[in-house]
Amino acid sequence: MKIAFFSTQPYDIKFFNQLKDDFGFELVYFESALTTQTASLAANAEAVCVFVNDKLNSDVIDALAAEGVKIIALRCAGFNNVDLDAAKRNGIQVCRVPAYSPEAVAEFAVAILLTLNRKTNKAYNRVREQNFSLNGLLGFDVHNKTVGVVGTGNIGKAFCKIMLGFGCKVFAFDVIANKDLEAIGVEFKPLQDVLHCDIISLHCPLNDQTKHIINDTTIAMMKKGVMLINTSRGGLIDTKAVINALKSGQIGYLGIDVYEQEEKLFFRDLSSNIIQDDQIQRLMSFPNVLVTSHQAFFTEDALHQISTTTLKNIKDFHEKGVLDNKAAFLV
Ligand code: NAI
Predict the structure, then answer these.
(1) Which residues span the domain enclosing 244?
(2) pLDDT value at residue 34
(3) Are residues 205 and 304 in the same domain?
(4) Ligand 1: residue whose CA is nearest its atom 3
(5) How far apart are CA 81 and CA 48, in angstroms?
(6) Is 196 considered catalytic here?
């Protein structure tokens, strides 16, 4: 059985090839993203394997169906980039990797938080130029601060536990309160209360309810000088509103691993290009903003888990017609 991989990076090939013989699949790798133009590369493949910035809209899914594709395997947790209705209409199953390493993402959110606060990125560059001054590197104690967590699924839960370990007061907002977290001291509150914390971290999925959940109105509810971290999906944030809030000082620190228009930028070396996206350039010009290119998941452990679960999803579907890790909503 053949699986066509899109948006493939060298590390994908390394981790999937390690398992190739165990599963007995033919794996074909394409560097290009999956689009209507590239869908024909999936000819004779029963499965396609895609990543976060492959846009599987109705046209792309129709094109995959015409090539005979039976299953779309996302090698990621989020599935906001797939038109699930179009998949259902074409009888194509969609699976994902729901929890490959929640700790990888939660730990990275903490790494951004600490870097923004203690400015280790600036210190690293500074001492290499023999500038040993501390001016401009002042931070704050994270201990005793209030931390607001939006979305307490696998990743949000792991993040809450780390922040409790730092001695923070952790408040959370989710559509469903988590009893295990309540038992260890996390308080579930309405969104506006959670937005009033010293540090806010977003861990909910991107959907119709959460798109631009951070906007002019919700930013106005925040404490002046708040630290905002987003390792979930770029579309949770209205970038224009955040830029205005950074200019006014309402947002004091911004750490983003995801960006609404990231598919035109992330996972590529554009160091010799002229970037046409003025919003990301403006964001990167602030000294109190840290942008990383969707790397929170990027650990050895997570990549091993992603490749194992993805191939197992496809094998179960191929051999037994069962699919444990269906993208939600698709029954
Ligand atoms: P999950 O499905 O385990 O948890 C999501 C949580 O958000 C659930 O508890 C759900 O009830 C909650 N939620 C849903 N709608 C909500 C709303 N309107 N308001 C508040 N909470 C809401 O997902 P998981 O594994 O924790 O991942 C969270 C997100 O992180 C994913 O959707 C994905 O977009 C992102 N992610 C980012 C990665 C990166 O490398 N930067 C890697 C993996 C995931």
Answers:
(1) 102-291
(2) 97
(3) no
(4) 153
(5) 14
(6) no
Sign of CA dihedral 232, 234, 238, 241: positive
- Which residue among 75, 96, 174, 293 is best mutated to probe the pocket of ligand 1, counting the most ligand atoms within 8 A of its Cβ? 174
What is the value of pTM for the model shown? 0.93
- CATH number at 241 reads 3.40.50.720
- Say if residue 60 is in the same domain as residue 191: no
Active site residue 262: yes
pLDDT of residue 323: 83
Alpha-carbon span 120 to 115, nearest angstrom: 5
| Position 292, amino acid | T
Structure confidence by residue, pLDDT tens digits, 57-83: 999 999 999 999 999 999 998 899 999
Q: β-strands 71-74, 169-173: how paired?
A: unpaired
Residues 62 and 126 in one domain: no
Residues 241 and 131 in one domain: yes
Residue numbers in the chain where pLDDT is lower than 70: 328-331
Extended beta strands in 231-293, E state: 251-256, 289-291
Percentage of the chain surpassing pLDDT 70? 99
CA–centroid distance for 18 within its chain = 25
Please give the mean pLDDT across all residues of the chain: 96
Provide the number of structural domains found in the chain.
Answer: 2
Kindly name the residue from 103, 260, 262, 263 that is annotated as catalytic. Answer: 262
pLDDT at 328: 55
* Shared-domain flag, residues 190 and 314: no
Q: Check if 318 is active-site.
A: no
